[in-house]
Amino acid sequence: MSQPPSGTPPPGRPLSEKTRLAGERIIAALAAKGANNPVCPMCHQTQFTVGAYTPLFVTTNVNRPSVGGPSYPFVALVCTTCGNTQLINLLTLGLRQEDLDGLAFEELPGAP
Description:
The protein has helices at residues 17-32, 97-100, and strands at residues 48-57, 71-79, 85-89.
C-alpha cells in the first residue's frame, strides 16, 4: 500500500513546529491535486519525505548566470528508499508566498 509523502524525521530528530506545518501544507496541496500516492520512478517504492525548500534561480542570459535574481520556488520530494529527488514547483502546486510566510524548512530529515 502506498503512503503519501511525510515530513516525519527519523527517531531522535524531531522537526520544528514551523517545518512540520510547512510540510503539512505542501502534502495537503499535493493531495488536492491528486498526487497523494506517488511511486518512485527509480525503485518503484512509495515512501517519500518532503525535503528542503530549493529556489531555482533563472536568468535570461546564459553567459551571465546570476544568483539572487528571479527564481522559482521548489521543494524537494525525496524517496526514502533510493534517494531519488523530485522538485515540486510550489507556485504550480497552488501555494503562494503568504501560504508559507513565517514557516521554515530545516535540513532534510535523515541528513548526516
